[in-house]
Design a protein that fits this description.
Distance between the termini: 27 Å
Strand order of the largest sheet: 1-2-3-5-4
Helix content: 25-40%
CATH architecture of the largest domain: Roll
Number of helices: 11
Structural class: alpha+beta
CATH topology of the largest domain: C8orf32 fold
Largest sheet: 5 strands, antiparallel
Radius of gyration: 24 Å
Shape: globular
């Protein structure tokens, strides 16, 4: 990732080291009532004497300087809130700071307040996303993304090894470290590789998605929830065959897709990953959804029950997939585990549901779910946050499964670009 130039304020904030009350300040207003997925770690106020000196260097008169450390969907970012005495000073300060930035998103002005983003690994996407979440910039109603990903063609996955193997590929970075290459070989031996790749069927998103590949597929088969692409000759990275997929997909703020088709009974059936017929799971689902009659009410009750730390802890191996039965017993897991639990409980409660995978924009690979709202269509939900983080413009779906089998293995970090907003 491209590093962001650090301005004079960053070093001053770091040296100040003084935590003070910041009631009635611009930062207080900005960081109050943060949305789900955004957390405030600390705020530091620069002493008045230093504030005056910094203002002189930036060409304006300052009233207050504050540095806050926040996390936006897991990624840390430093938010410097600079309050000028008047708009003229704010304009001068904004212009001075903007000169040191590689992208306009790193510094914005709202009246007398200038907000600057600083951090070792931040990029324009994270800065823009932070501005959305802090309501400094209006969120678009829809976003079209372009995902370029090198995806392994997996026939049978060891799901607990997907993330570790991906991590080894990232650590190697095209190098020749023999120990790392051997680790890749050992982990990849746990998989069965083939020549097919299944992606979420564009018709699930009103036909808006487009898939392109290198090399080109020899066949594309409509398998209902997915399009299964077949290939002949594929490149391989350390013995792992892969295809470069370019996926254009549009998401909106609702996470909802209308559908007149009535889901088949298999969408409430049990599978090895989703034991919806297990008496313990059925009993728990009934307990959670007691008094709820609609699919939406039942789904919301299950999401509430899955609120991290309430009944299931968000903990353990990154990228784990233990199966729903084990997670409900051990009471901890990660995003795939929360999704498995949601689908298993939803199906046990008679709610048609399935699993969705892809990327959480400006964050990481992610797994969530969707359920059917009677007579309306499919609603995406994020069980990892207990439904608090609504599926909207950040959830980029390009995998879907109705039986729990959804092998996802990246052999490099995908590139994700926002190509259009509305």
């Amino acid at each position: 990732m491209k590093q962001v130039p650090t301005c004079l304020l960053a070093s001053v904030f770091a040296m100040a080291g003084i935590l003070m009350s910041y009631s009635a300040s611009a930062a207080d207003s900005l960081l109050r009532n943060l949305p789900p997925g955004v957390f405030l770690d600390s705020t530091t106020v620069v002493p008045p004497a230093q504030t005056k000196a910094i203002g002189q260097k930036l060409g304006g008169e300052l009233e207050r300087l504050e540095n806050s450390m926040i996390r936006v969907h897991g990624r840390p970012i430093q938010v410097n809130t600079i309050t000028a005495t008047d708009e003229s000073s704010a304009k001068a300060i904004h212009a001075a700071i903007a000169k040191s930035k590689s992208h306009p998103a790193f510094c914005i002005r709202r009246g007398r307040v200038v907000v600057e983003y600083v951090g070792k690994d931040i990029d324009a996407a994270l800065a823009t996303k932070t501005s959305y979440e802090l309501c400094l910039v209006p969120k678009p109603a829809s976003v079209r993304y372009r995902v370029i990903a090198e995806l392994a063609t997996v026939d049978k996955a060891d799901y607990m090894s997907c993330t570790p193997l991906f991590g080894k590929f990232l650590a190697l970075k095209g190098g020749t470290d023999q120990a790392m290459i051997q680790q890749i070989s050992d982990l990849s031996a746990k998989f069965q590789f083939g020549r097919v790749l299944a992606l979420r069927n564009p018709k699930l998103d009103n036909g808006a998605a487009v898939h392109l590949f290198k090399p080109s597929p020899t066949e594309a088969k409509d398998a209902g929830v997915s399009i299964v692409y077949s290939f002949t000759q594929l490149p391989a990275r350390h013995g792992v065959p892969y295809v470069t997929a370019t996926i254009d997909v549009t998401v909106d703020a609702t996470g909802f897709r209308t559908s007149e088709a009535v889901p088949s009974k298999k969408l409430t059936a049990a599978t090895p990953f989703w034991p919806a017929d297990d008496p313990k799971v059925i009993s728990l689902a009934r307990q959670i959804t007691a008094g709820k009659t609609t699919h939406e009410a039942k789904a919301k009750a299950i999401l509430e029950w899955l609120t991290p730390g309430q009944n299931i802890k968000y903990a353990g191996q990154t990228g784990s997939r233990w199966t729903a039965a084990k997670v409900l017993e051990q009471k901890f897991g990660r995003c795939w585990d929360f999704s498995d639990c949601f689908v298993a409980l939803a199906r046990a409660a008679g709610v048609p549901s399935r699993q969705v995978g892809g990327w959480l924009y400006c964050s990481e690979g992610h797994i969530w779910a969707e359920y059917y709202r009677e007579g309306k269509g499919w609603q995406q939900v994020d069980p990892t946050g207990g439904g608090k983080l609504e599926c909207g413009i950040y959830h980029i779906p390009y995998f879907t499964s109705e039986d729990g089998e959804m092998p996802i293995l990246y052999v490099s970090m995908p590139k994700i670009e926002c190509v259009q907003t509305k």
